[in-house]
Amino acid sequence: MAGRLHIASLDLERLLPGLGVDSPLVTSPNLAPRRPLSAIRLEADRPCLSRLFWGLTPPWLEVLDRAPHCARAESLEARPMFREAFRARRCLVPVSGVYVWRAQARFKQPFLVTRVDRGPLLLAGLWCRFHTSLAEHTDSLALITVPANSLLGPLTDRLPGVIAPADSHRWLDPRTPPDEARSLLATAPMELLGAFPVSRRVNDPAHQDPACAYPTGPMLCRNPR
């Protein structure tokens, strides 16, 4: 799934030229759900970075702990919570990695999934707006997950969908037909992503130091160097 994110300082202007910035990128070596998170949305036909709450909170949601932080790509249009947002309010979440946990005999071993070249990733998401008054509102998001490829399948069954920078405008644009947007939610090619084991220190979201992401073993990837 996607229960924790690694977000380093990223050169987003180079990744998406012309990107507007409403608020600085949220960085964290170990970001848990139900925290502020930076996302890219289309504003006046221009991608813009702003800060949202990680956990989709539609107006009728009564218990914050039930705010979903992920949505399965296969059920986006089957569930009312996600259907409208997927058609009209798609976003991208820039990260440097996603933590996953592999079950073992005595404990779960954490891994950090990254691009093989350690470059930034744009994760597919959707967002909604909750008006707290006539003048104030809160925006929130959920990541969209897809099946993991066969290389990373032994670590996790699902990962957030990765959108290529070249497809970012099509993904963000509400005028893009749902079928076309859905076609971008493909399992990541094995050449793109790798994963390496990290310290179990990352298990506690209170730990916010770089050691959370230090490799404790070699990277699992399609073409080891």
TrEMBL record:
Enzyme Commission code: 3.4.-.-
Keywords attached to this entry: Covalent protein-DNA linkage, DNA damage, DNA-binding, Hydrolase, Lyase, Protease
InterPro entries: SRAP, SRAP-like
Domain of life: Bacteria
One Pfam match: SRAP
Family: Belongs to the SOS response-associated peptidase family.
PANTHER family recorded: ABASIC SITE PROCESSING PROTEIN HMCES, DC12-RELATED
Name this protein carries in UniProt: Abasic site processing protein
